[in-house]
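Collaborator request, handled under Task 6.
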Amino acid sequence: MYKLTTFFFINLFLLSCTNYYKDLKVNKQYTTAIKQSSTLVFEDNFTGNWQEKWFLDGENAQLINTTNGLEFYAGGYNKPIPDQQIPEYHATLWTKEVFNEDIRIEFNYTRLDTVNKFVNILYIFAEGSGILPYDKDISKWNELRNISAMKEYYNNMNVYHISYAAFDPNSSTFTDYIRCRRYTPDGRGLEGTKLSPEYLDTGMFKTNIKHHITVISKGDYLFMKVESPERSGYYYFNKPPFAYINSGRIGLRIMNFRAALISNFKIYKFN
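Structure tokens returned to the collaborator:
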């Protein structure tokens, strides 16, 4: 029994050391990337008409440009909240412009809701599967996403997906998470789409607190930094070889009953 206990703690210590040095390496890579020369290629402070640079999936969302940014309300906001998703209430905002190669995305996010269910998603490099009618140019099948059901995305797109300010609708603990996926439109749905690692109970994204989000897609990694007046967090996700994509549109998804204020949205391309 003593030998087994000793063996367990030695392995736990070695795992902790491995994770510590891996995190140091990732933070160093993030720091190197953030300092690299880049060019601003897209900018929207969201105080003007959002339709100039974006198009919307979802018929029941409400978008309001204000002097503070874009108030983005999913369908069902301020209505009784069921346990399950209602696809008719989801919405996604897409850039009209297509981006490629290594990029950095920055924006301010303020959670306006108090709903401890469902998620917000940042989509990176979205393209259709190329199998008709799902053209690689997703703007050519907008009408198929008038109801912004999740299955239309993970079944028919190649794209990276980062969930944030996210909550499991089937959990009673209200623990938030940050998670990355790579949709593979091969008929398996969400099976096998998670990219490691995932982050539980981050303590981020409290209501009415502004968060600055930075996401870098560079080489084999997706990096994410979240900053608020209370705390900051660094996150990363490995891109397996099969998962590599580097061209497409950027999207902001908000699920039913959620609401957010988005401002100072910028995309930089690394030189």
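The cover message to the collaborator said: "DSSP finds two helices and 16 strands in the chain. The radius of gyration is 19 Å. Please let us know whether this matches your experimental observations."
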